[in-house]
Amino acid sequence: MDKRPGILVVDDQVNTLRVLALFLKDNGFLVHKALGGKRALALYREMPHLDVILSDLKMPGMDGLTLFRKMEAIKKTPPFIIMTAYATVQTAIKALKAGVTDYLIKPLNFEELPLTLAKVLKQKEMSRELDLLRRQVGQNTSFQGMIGQSETMLKVFELIKTVAPTDAPVLITGETGSGKELIAKSLHKKSHRKDGPMVSINCAALTESLLEAQLFGHKKGSFTGALKDTMGLLEKADQGTLFLDEIDKMSLALQAKLLRFLEEKTFRPVGGSQTKNVDVRIIAASNQDLAQHIRQGGFLCDLLYRIEVIKIKAPCLKERKEDIPLLCKHFLEHYARHYRKPVNGINTPCLEALANYHWPGNVRELKNCLARAVILSRSKTIKPDDLPAKITGSAQKKPHTGPGFNLAMPGSSLKEMETSLIQNTMEHCKGNKSLAARMLGISRKGLYQKLKRLGLESEERNKR
Predict the structure, then answer these.
(1) Which biological process terms from the Gene Ontology are attached to this UniProt entry (predicted)?
(2) What is the pTM for the complete model shown?
(3) Which tens digits make up the pLDDT trace of 132-144?
């Protein structure tokens, strides 16, 4: 079996194909040639294995980006590198957003080409090893429905294991969408109360009087509309767990009544004269700073002491970005089944965009984002175009020189054009020098040298 890496070279020029094939063969590749996009697509259908594809962009009949999209629709493509003599930033951005791996400028630099291919193949191998590792440790990537392998999440899992068997009240803090309710459910499922009920209520969803009636129950005639005796959530949760989400929205009067229950383990329904005893574990959650609420007079100090015997912080997504690939895999599999779409992966530029986004809505926002991506995707792989503009950074911005980086202004000097090109590219890439260098078709070191030569180095430093 030939162990050389297989490469498919696509171009509409016979001479270019011949030169590239000879060069790549001399550099240890098993070379397959295709004269044009249609021939390449036919070959691709027949080939069981390829390590990399090197394709021209501008070709009659089927251009490089169309070829890439059609190949993706058949099966997940290996690393796909575009070559073009038509070097514009707009074209580079379009290619990278579509999901291609890299972008090379013609005439090709035959000293850099082997290095580029070696880098791409190394990334492919690392990705393969990472997928294998994830499959091997897949059973350890989730805990009671929570996904994560980051150090932050592993600490949360360990704390849950330690705390769950006790009856101690727990306060779960964290930003909106960070998974506080999942932590509460995990505490219940890992406790000796797991066979008892778990009852949840959002304290922000009801008025004070309705929340009181829901929690403690009420007697017939105790208020307008109370047509019969009704059992409260505390009683329904007997021998189980009561989860109070957004407890900071509870009124001071209700807080006092809850505090009394925590101290005495008894309560009296609204309009009732007899007390009731129940055995309930209280778990509360808040996305607010309750200590600050106490200082502002909005929360009872004694109640905070009672409910935060144990405190668990649900980490926000930006604190556990290494979990994003695992979360993506989990949500993609779920929504691919749910919406009956043949989506089975997500490409590297897309993962990079997800990792660079700040996620104010945390895991909930990521989940909704991937549901949208699965619905909109037209291939088996999620690409940056399937994501919202706010995540990819492709929200329409007005460049210094107008739409599309139209840099060839009459009368401009070469230095002015180069300066403008680099400034616009750096702005588009939000200061990411690696991405900017790739779009410009130069090395990162080369970009640093140009920034210094054009006097842009200090300007970039000041923006940070």
Answers:
(1) phosphorelay signal transduction system; regulation of DNA-templated transcription
(2) 0.59
(3) 555 544 445 677 8
